[in-house]
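Milestone 3.1: sequence recovery, worked example.
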């Protein structure tokens, strides 16, 4: 039997917004999807924090960042809202526009029993890369007296479809660092536009959760990005005092 949940997090990812609210990504109105997801989280889940794991923008416009901020502020969300850069995003624009409440630029959340670490995987290409210096910095902040949930954009395990071309390119180095710490209980990422639970040959004890996108879910049978027709999605994590994690994926019913 699980102990009482000590911390609850909603994760959203991969909004792929345009400069206008009627922009379509593979046929989906992605701004409308984002607004609907945010309102569902606010109205149906009592979360302590929300974490966005990358790819606000599709057209790389500053207006798309502004629309993201508008959607969050208009939703009435007041819990801390943390964020990471995806391969489509720019750190400078994230920090420029996500600078008003409820946004918070911290990358380490320290709770009584848990550390939630937001790890940058953005590189100069669409592929992910966690630098050696970032891995060293991660090692230095891990509190072995707490449990860790690691959150990132790129997937550190292959998922078996076209997005693997743009996955984490230094997987072996990444897992070599992760395996040093038995206190790491799970990793979650965006980028793959699917809700998956995977285990690595490098570390069979640590699950990798992937977050469904608020934009579209990828058709895994295609050789490039295309929608599988499923609605927008998000994840909710319940973190328990004994180190256990419960994670549920939610999808909007398409109108």
């Amino acid at each position: 039997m699980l102990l009482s949940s000590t911390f609850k997090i909603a994760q959203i990812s991969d909004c792929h917004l345009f400069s206008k609210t009627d922009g379509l990504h593979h046929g989906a109105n992605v701004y409308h999807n984002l607004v609907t997801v945010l309102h569902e989280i606010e109205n149906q889940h009592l979360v302590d924090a929300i974490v966005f794991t990358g790819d606000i923008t599709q057209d790389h416009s500053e207006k798309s960042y502004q629309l993201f901020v508008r959607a969050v502020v208009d939703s009435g969300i007041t819990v801390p809202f943390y964020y990471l850069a995806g391969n489509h995003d720019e750190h400078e624009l994230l920090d420029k526009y996500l600078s008003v409440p409820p946004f918070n630029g911290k990358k380490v959340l320290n709770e009584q029993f848990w550390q939630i670490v937001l790890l940058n995987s953005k590189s100069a290409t669409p592929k992910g890369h966690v630098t050696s210096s970032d891995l060293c910095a991660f090692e230095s902040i891990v509190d072995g007296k707490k449990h860790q949930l690691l959150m990132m954009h790129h997937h550190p395990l292959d998922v078996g479809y076209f997005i693997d071309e743009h996955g984490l390119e230094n997987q072996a180095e990444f897992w070599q660092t992760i395996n040093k710490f038995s206190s790491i209980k799970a990793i979650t990422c965006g980028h793959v536009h699917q809700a998956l639970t995977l285990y690595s040959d490098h570390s069979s004890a640590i699950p990798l959760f992937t977050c469904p996108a608020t934009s579209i879910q990828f058709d895994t049978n295609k050789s490039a990005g295309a929608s599988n027709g499923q609605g927008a999605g998000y994840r909710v994590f319940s973190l328990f005092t004994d180190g256990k994690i419960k994670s549920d994926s939610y999808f909007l019913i398409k109108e």
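Residues 30-44 form the longest helix (15 residues). The chain has a mean pLDDT of 94.
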